[in-house]
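Homework help thread (please don't just give me the answer)

Our assignment gives two proteins as sequence + structure token strings and asks us to describe the second one. The first is just a warm-up. Here they are:
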Amino acid sequence: MPITKNKGISRIDSEACRTYGWYVRLRYNGKSVAKLFSDKKYGGKAQALMKARRYYKKSTEKLKKEMLKLYSNKLPVKPIVSKNRRNNTGVVGVQRIDRKNTGGSVYRAFRVNWTDKSGKSKNKFFSFEKFGEKKAFELACKYRQEKVKENYF
């Protein structure tokens, strides 16, 4: 059986059962989905593969949304950790920074850190000057929660 570069999609060529097509299997947090895209029904190998890819993508998004609904109320609203040298706010992924600029002024903000779906580290700043310290902290915490939901659910 040839290997495709499509995650969750396998080629089925069974002469004994007269089954030819692309088989989609998807499992997400205990829920599973499976469907065969027959070459005959979809007009050939290429068209069946295209339909299988679309189905896989839509099913993945649908299952992720379902899981987000189930677990969204179980996400911690404000994950607390002890304050230490590396975390000065008590909230995971939110850090207070005081940076001196070349002109002598001080830039104060909360920096939000997260990892995107590709594994790349990202950050965003919420300035005290622009929002005020309290509002900047609230916005930073809210933004961090959005990024956690977006990238992990």
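The one we have to describe:
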Amino acid sequence: MNCPALLENHPMSKRAKALVTVLLTASSLPWAAQAHHSFAAEFDASKVVHLEGEVVKFAWVNPHSWIHIKVQKDDGTFEEWKIEGGAPSLLLRRGWNRNSLPPGTRIIVNAFPARDGDRRASPRDISFPDGRKLDIGSSYQTGQGGKQQKSESDK
């Protein structure tokens, strides 16, 4: 007899379901561990780039927000940098919202560049041209229990 109701209570079916569940969970762990990175794995704390430019876009996304800025190079051409910030939930607690940095806003960023050479960075500090500071809750700033870490160049 091949009745689904009878198979549900069969002891081997329960064991098989448990085994499949354990195997699927275990196989997803390496992917989950790679999904979120540490500051040291992603960014180089021994180097600081100085960027001055205009906000192109403020991406209010999880797990990190991103400020896209257009920076003019010495030769007059422009390049876009992506500055990693804290999660939207963290930024909300600090008084931010998705409209806090509209396109065209000028900012100054001192940041740690991505290790892979891409134009991504984690900010050491961000300010406006008038000197006001921005706290975007970067992984550099929140690393070690919320205390600001120092780069090699600061020591």
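TA reply:
I won't write it for you, but here's a hint about the kind of observation we're looking for: Residues 4-35 form one domain.
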